[in-house]
Amino acid sequence: MAHKSDLIADDILGYLKAQEEKSLLRFITCGSVDDGKSTLIGRLLWDSKLIFEDQLAALEADSRKVGTQGGEIDFALLLDGLQAEREQGITIDVAYRFFSTDKRKFIVADTPGHEQYTRNMATGASTADVAVILIDARKGILTQTRRHSFITSLLGIRHVVLAVNKMDLIDYDQGTFDAIVAEYHAFAGQLNYSSITAIPLSALRGDNILANSPNIPWYDGPALMAYLETVQVEQESIEKPFRLPVQWVNRPNLDFRGFSGTVASGVVKPGDDIIVTASGQTSKVRDIVTFDGNLDQAIAGQAITLTLEDEIDISRGDVLAHADAKPDFADQFEAQIIWMHEDHLLPGRPYLIKMGAQISNAQISDLKYKVNVNTLEHVAGKTLELNEVGVANIATDRALAFDPYLENRHSGRFIIIDRYTNATVGAGMVNHSLRRATNIKWQEMDINKGARAYQKGQKSAVLWFTGLSGAGKSTIANLVEKKLHALGKHTYTLDGDNVRHGLNKDLGFTDADRVENIRRVAETAKLFVDAGMITLVSFISPFRSERQLARGLLEPGEFIEVFVDTPLEICEQRDIKGLYKKARDGQIANFTGIDSPYEKPQNAEITVNTTSQSAEAAAELVVAKLEEFGVLGTWYPDI
User: Fold this and answer.
1) Cα-based distances in Å from 167 to 134, 162, 202
2) Can you state the angle between helices 174-188 and 143-154, rounded to 10 degrees?
3) I need a labelling partner for 590 at 20 to 30 A (CA). Which of 184, 239, 289, 428 fits?
4) How far is residue 519's CA from residue 202's CA, in Å, rounded to a whole number?
């Protein structure tokens, strides 16, 4: 490196010890395009003499080749590592850099300014303690300034540096700086910041980066580096209640059983009373075990193993807390969501939620409103698009332990995962639990599903007919029900068109409405199954996720998917209702097969092909399969 500590040569162990004991600050730079974020970080590294010799040589060569400073050093190239970033002169991905000074270690995230990369910016902000929000002094506060300020506040960052950059291009004018600061304070007053420190600077010229610049004599606040070295953030997570998400049950032999994880917040000591949030069981901490020996206490950020005085049931995903400061524990909660995927959020669709080490199936049960991140207005909406923010109610299939995010960002955040692609599609921050959900208990009945089905001499099940419009679903389902009725079986058919005359009369044909359409029908079908019925469901149900949702509501063997496999061209030729023609003419939007996708079943229990089979033959096949599956015979359950 161009600079190194004398301790490296004189006392390497002392140097390593000094590095280990330094505090760590994570901060993020954000702002609009061309505000100078990458240049600022590059300048910090350059002026701090924290660049390796080969990096310096490469930077000088790249500055001559693709730089934007007329052959002079282009500090932004230290961060803009992607080919596309260098060609366009913008930041696309999040670039992380580590550096240290005599007083502190730093991890900085350089995030994109373009609106389409907001999700990348949110990712960088999720672990940061401080946000450095850059503003081009010539342009003032822009839309992206407001957007990034809102998101950093939403993600729990409480300390902000308002870095008014490129002061050299306005001749270091104090009036312009003061006007920008006043406008920003008026906007940020609606946010949850604890402190806002405004610094006038020039990243390119080095003004107010490491030391106060003589070019700005009217400014008497700290230089940027001085602020970053002294801002206090470490105590905040330590002062929160103790939370330990259990990541591993450590059982190397019969004589040792410990619970390993990283302390999310707070402090724990031997002798403390702790509680397992899920079960309510309590015990005392016996030892705090680490690789380097037992500790007298552990604080937020430390990886530890706890041993307890009592043998109680604890598994991966459980959350340990002080007995007198428990987190919330509920299966429904309100949360703010940042959507991070091209496929938009659909309320009612099944997702996975990962909250610390806890994983649960979940649904966004109600999107209450979207937030216009530029004006902070609440906007009505049924779904969230890429980079949009909204407030929603979320229901999980089991209770989770959490704190409101504003009280504890470490135990109040989660990610949303697509169940099929395993992609992270959203990030969320818990506002509060929904108490009404916790207060509702399941009422047990003496007559159960098995008894009802036995009385009818059959096994209750759902036959879920899916296929394109015009494929023949309703025709085949009707024939199947007639044959089952003739056999003395108890049936009921839920038909897509019929249900929309009543139960789903209020729903349209957007993707969000289609998801809710299937969710309601699936819940209704579940009730018919509980009544011991053979229920035939005839719906296009174009999305695998929703068909999987319906399957997941039932017990194994109760959901039988019948794929009526008819090619689109055949369905269009039939077009009994004239819908395909209207869709082709643009009179019907979001029509499955035309401008809305149909996702074919991958492993349907029964497949019929109406191009090679008559409707009668298809119905005979379905009935034969039901006989084979044991649905039509008398079932002898435990009743």
Assistant:
1) 12, 13, 6
2) 50
3) 428
4) 56
pLDDT in the model for residue 20: 62
The answer to whether residues 622 and 606 touch, using CB atoms and an 8 Å cutoff, is yes
- Neighbouring residues of 48: CB distance < 8 A, sequence distance ≥ 6: 3, 99, 101, 210, 225
Spatial separation of the C-alpha atoms in residues 351 and 549, rounded to whole Å: 10
Q: Both tokens of residue 174?
A: 């104090």
Q: Rounded to whole angstroms, how far apart are CA atoms 286 and 259?
A: 12
Domains, the chain, with CATH or none: 7-232 (3.40.50.300), 240-322 (2.40.30.10), 328-438 (2.40.30.10), 449-628 (3.40.50.300)
The rounded distance, in Å, linking the Cα atoms of 59 and 51 is 10
What end-to-end distance do the CA atoms of the chain give, in Å? 77
For the residues 23-37, what does the mean pLDDT come to? Answer: 81
Q: Is residue 6 over pLDDT 70?
A: no
* Structure confidence at residue 88 as a pLDDT band (50, 70, 90): very low
pLDDT tens digits, one per residue of 381-390: 889 998 889 9
Question: CB–CB of 634/457 below 8 Å?
Answer: yes
Q: Report how far residue 17's alpha carbon sits from residue 30's, in angstroms, rounded to the nearest whole number.
A: 33
**DSSP character for 265?**
B
Q: What is the pLDDT of residues 558-598, one digit of tens each?
A: 999 999 999 999 988 888 788 888 888 888 887 888 888 89
DSSP string, 69-114: STTS--GGGGT--SHHHHHHTS--S-EEEEEE-SSEEEEEEE---S
pLDDT digits (tens, 9 = 90+) for 434-472: 865 555 666 778 888 888 888 888 999 999 999 998 889
- The Cα 308–Cα 472 span in angstroms is 63
Q: Distance between CA 486 and CA 408 in Å, rounded?
A: 62
SS3 402: strand
Q: 427: helix, coil or strand? A: strand
6, 12 Cβ separation under 8 angstroms: no
> What are the catalytic residues?
541
Residue 89's region, left for phi above 0, alpha for psi from -120 to 50, else beta, is: left
Question: Token match 């289609």: residue?
Answer: 514
Tokens read off for 519: 């969710």
